Amino acid sequence: MDGAVTRNAGLSVLAIGAHPDDIELGCGGALLAHVAAGDRVTMLVVTGGENGPGDGARHREQERAAQMIGARLVWGGLRDCEVSPDAATVRVIEQVIESTRADLVYVHAPEDSHQDHRAVAAATLGAARRLSRVLHYQSPSTLTFTPTVYVDVTAYLSGKVAALSAHASQVEMSAMVEPDAVVASARHWGSQARIGYAEAFQPTRLVLDLAPVSGLGTAQVAASWQLTPAVFA
Amino acid sequence: MDGAVTRNAGLSVLAIGAHPDDIELGCGGALLAHVAAGDRVTMLVVTGGENGPGDGARHREQERAAQMIGARLVWGGLRDCEVSPDAATVRVIEQVIESTRADLVYVHAPEDSHQDHRAVAAATLGAARRLSRVLHYQSPSTLTFTPTVYVDVTAYLSGKVAALSAHASQVEMSAMVEPDAVVASARHWGSQARIGYAEAFQPTRLVLDLAPVSGLGTAQVAASWQLTPAVFA
Amino acid sequence: MDGAVTRNAGLSVLAIGAHPDDIELGCGGALLAHVAAGDRVTMLVVTGGENGPGDGARHREQERAAQMIGARLVWGGLRDCEVSPDAATVRVIEQVIESTRADLVYVHAPEDSHQDHRAVAAATLGAARRLSRVLHYQSPSTLTFTPTVYVDVTAYLSGKVAALSAHASQVEMSAMVEPDAVVASARHWGSQARIGYAEAFQPTRLVLDLAPVSGLGTAQVAASWQLTPAVFA
Amino acid sequence: MDGAVTRNAGLSVLAIGAHPDDIELGCGGALLAHVAAGDRVTMLVVTGGENGPGDGARHREQERAAQMIGARLVWGGLRDCEVSPDAATVRVIEQVIESTRADLVYVHAPEDSHQDHRAVAAATLGAARRLSRVLHYQSPSTLTFTPTVYVDVTAYLSGKVAALSAHASQVEMSAMVEPDAVVASARHWGSQARIGYAEAFQPTRLVLDLAPVSGLGTAQVAASWQLTPAVFA
Amino acid sequence: MDGAVTRNAGLSVLAIGAHPDDIELGCGGALLAHVAAGDRVTMLVVTGGENGPGDGARHREQERAAQMIGARLVWGGLRDCEVSPDAATVRVIEQVIESTRADLVYVHAPEDSHQDHRAVAAATLGAARRLSRVLHYQSPSTLTFTPTVYVDVTAYLSGKVAALSAHASQVEMSAMVEPDAVVASARHWGSQARIGYAEAFQPTRLVLDLAPVSGLGTAQVAASWQLTPAVFA
Amino acid sequence: MDGAVTRNAGLSVLAIGAHPDDIELGCGGALLAHVAAGDRVTMLVVTGGENGPGDGARHREQERAAQMIGARLVWGGLRDCEVSPDAATVRVIEQVIESTRADLVYVHAPEDSHQDHRAVAAATLGAARRLSRVLHYQSPSTLTFTPTVYVDVTAYLSGKVAALSAHASQVEMSAMVEPDAVVASARHWGSQARIGYAEAFQPTRLVLDLAPVSGLGTAQVAASWQLTPAVFA
């Protein structure tokens, strides 16, 4: 194979999670791959994870993890366990999509047993309604998940686990974050993808740009096929 | 957007269809985009479309269409309406996958009311069992189809329709090939993808290579995470 | 309610089943309703049910059941347990669709544990590829079935059970045909449909003609919206 | 075909949308067909679309569009972007179902990236829990949509587009309403339905009344099959 | 068959419903079977069904029904038609899961047209996030339901109907509770399960313990396969 | 937890696979758990895996693996890569179901890219049409797989891997059998099931017998609820 199906230089990638460590668990390896490829990566953590240790530990942990990944960190400012998929949450996410001019968004899968995860997934789908690339990652609390898109994280698994280990307060305390299961799932999905280790994604939509042609609207299509009804012309 | 999610230079792309014109209808625009991006494109037409005009017209039409796309044409040699998803058909497809060293395969969607389409989709999934990228396209006879991956074909729609028009015997005779529906579907899927005109694909699996790191197997992972049980070591 | 969502006078209805009694079990009540509404109903029984009693009993039973329903009976001539979804089976069904000029087809659901049922469903979808109305019924051997369309058979349940009882050899011998389950399922689906007793159907596609406007093709649409590309014009 | 699968004279049809123009986009053609067939059509617009131009423009536009369709217009009185699928919203919709004695309801598809659309779909399913006919239409923001029921709108496409053009403030301002995509989708779904132009619907449930028999409850069934347990008799 | 796939002695079973009578309708037969098998059964009724008769009738009815089943009754204390799947509701359910040390939870199916049912299903999935056995039952208002797990209630159908009849105020007043449909559905699902009468369940997850080996964690696995990354060791 | 949801003493368990090693990969751990619980386990290997080493190696390997599991081995006698889901294959499987009086069947998942796997799954569903317990396991070539039922194999993972290692010719030669992926998938599914290591299953149907009540038919139900229509009585 002389080339690659995908390339990304200068892409703006936005990863969104409800709580500290959600993003690293779901797509930390893919983010490391994006950084390695020269993309700009932003992490939007919607709540402060207030239900964990209260002394700011989780904020500092998240900042360290973002540094390890090479991503810019943005806080959404909502409160842990109180996220609702309403217009206000949509607006919080919309503003980060706009300010980062995001080309690609990673977010929780829609079917999840944690109400904040569901709310963030739903609000992101609203905020990203005009974006052509939205991929959903799996969390330990995700319910039905049928991925079809994968990123090879063989080279980034060490980095992913290291970033996760920055969330010491969470990993030690939570029955839901099991480091060995993180490695095992990466190998499981890698096997499904016919590669080594992988992160798995369920796309809402994903436009592949196969050639360096961009910025084309419908105007380029021959006039005889233009579908705009006369009443609007 | 400074870059693009995907790039392909020198990729080997293999498009597989049961009959002449199936490939152009399903992914002709994407193939034109691949050619424009410098990829090598092969079209494998599994049968000769013997149930159409009997004087070799469909062979010549298919050859002309492949030329218009800039693809190499391979005939599978099976007979129209007699394709079975058995080991022999798997082997026919396997040989083309091997000889082209295909990186990416396009093929019919699995749920289709035409028995040849179903058979080609099933046999391709068997033949491509070790490939990391298999995308399914829609035919007029496709039943349930829930695409999540799209290719922008705004710049290639004229070319796609021109390639289709090379299949004059088929387009004139068939109630299933409606040129205006081809344009309308491209706009419909483009709207779903938040772009202009698109072709839509349902992935069995699609590995995105985000960075120019390749050829990594499981060996690169730290030894302490190697999962190979001792009895196999 | 002054009117009804649906009416049918002179509709040509074609019900297709793999074996004697399949059609009565799956949609016998709906067929009685069609007859009561003035439609012409044809039953195509694809095989003779040769694995049952060998003395022609099943043929005579099927003929009597068709009479009780008021339907014309056509035999497909294939053999029990040997139906394959190939071009020959498609052609058998196609011919009956053509000769009856069928407007609406009822047939087995695609996911069924009996190979003949699966084959008849698949071949019918091929044969009916240009029809706008194909509804799938449930058999005792059907696997996943998620109906969304229902017919009220409260007035026809007696008639359905009577037609089933014409298949005496089968009902007595088979562990799969349980008359009480037939009544119970009708009530179960009736409850789902918010009526009394119902038969349930899974549509492949169902066009509702709301108004007595027919025979319109794309030509009636304003020329400025015609989508036919110039190369075909 | 001498008749039609469906007829409607005097049917009460209720179309429900979250904002001005949602109904026209989703099922404007079907509503025109209902009116042509002699049905009474009511449009319930749940919010005033307050996030658009603030001077009442959207109310006047919606009133003009309803007039063009020949439908009665009812406002739900909720506020744009603040709809919740709670008991109050259910009650708003329930009252219109009751006052119109609706036989058939059209509403947003349940999986939609706009929170108001999701809320209106969910609340309608609650309010219509005893109705036998609920069909979901597609909006530009709809996510997964797998329609199986279609209405032929070839004769009504001009009227649909004209009604949409009444919403001038919205069409000009919104990136989500693309008139050419409306036409293209109608042709795309028409092709799926094997007709010209169509609107596509996903049914929650749809009872077809094949014969002019109505008002039958379970009482008509032979007493020996009555399933009511003795403890309730 | 000398044994049985499943046994339960001393299991703690928790059934959760939004309103009085929801549990009996959904899994009353299975609960009777659990009691007969020696399990401890708890019923958590999340609201008091305040929208029914206001004089405490529904509380007394529910208490009597629980007695008839042999279950302990717990009230969740939330209000009818006002349940939200938020952190507070999750906590209510979590506390009962903890206090009963539940091994198995029965709850509403997630797709339901009643907002309280949806909310209770969602909150239960959050509260039971660490439990290995969560089964969803069907209500009259449930939408898509594709059960794969069944309990034989042939011996308990009388008891189930008797417990339902304890809810006299509800059964008489509600158009949604139809006793004959309860019996019919049990027979319908029994037929699907290849037994007599059954209750049907859709599992979120169900761990089968085939052998009397319990309490094993990952520690028992040979050290060479331990997957815990070194950074966490 | 004092008891267990499931028990099996003297159950007859039948595991069916297309080729040598398919069963061990898919449900080897569960079979070991069945043996430990005192069940009788039979393995039906439908073909001899003739496309592997030709000197009988695969037969001897399979015999050794069955011995390690403690199961009786039955050969189906069909040829590798030539299995068809026809009446003959159904009969082969039916005979083993009958001779073993199987209570529970494990078999390939229906959606698989290997034609033999698909054929064995389909034929088993036909042969087991009257059985109440059919569970599908995952193979490396399985496509869509959404398990909901799990067996804890933490105590049996060593045994499973040892049985797999008996298939030395296959493991060494095949790119599809990756021992480390076997362990990783067990941990991945264990995490989904909220236990240590698990095998995952997709049920076609699974009846749970909660209490030692058996052999009840519909006769036990009160006569007034018997649904058998009079015409059959």
What does this structure look like?
The structure is a homohexamer of 233-residue chains. Chain A has 233 residues and is of the alpha/beta class. Helix content of chain A is 36%, strand content 20%. In chain A, strands 3-2-1-4-5-7-6 form a seven-stranded mixed sheet, with helices on both faces. The longest helix of chain A is centred in the first third of the chain and has 15 residues, at 22-36. Chain A is globular and about 65 Å long. Residues 1-8 and 213-219 of chain A have low confidence and may be disordered. At the A-B interface, helix 1, strand 6, helix 7 and strand 7 of A face helix 1, strand 6, helix 7 and strand 7 of B.
What key attributes describe this structure?
homohexamer; 233 residues; alpha/beta; 7-stranded mixed β-sheet; 7 helices; 36% helix; disordered N terminus
Helical/strand content category of chain A: alpha/beta
Order of helices and strands of chain A: EHEHEHEHEEHHHE
Assembly of the depicted chains: homohexamer
Residue windows where pLDDT falls under 50 for at least 5 positions of chain A: 1-8, 213-219
Gyration radius of chain A, in Å: 19 Å
Spatial strand arrangement across the major sheet of chain A: 3-2-1-4-5-7-6
For the biggest sheet of chain A, the summary is: 7 strands, mixed
Q: What is the averaged pLDDT score of chain A? A: 88
Spatial gap, N to C terminus of chain A = 48 Å
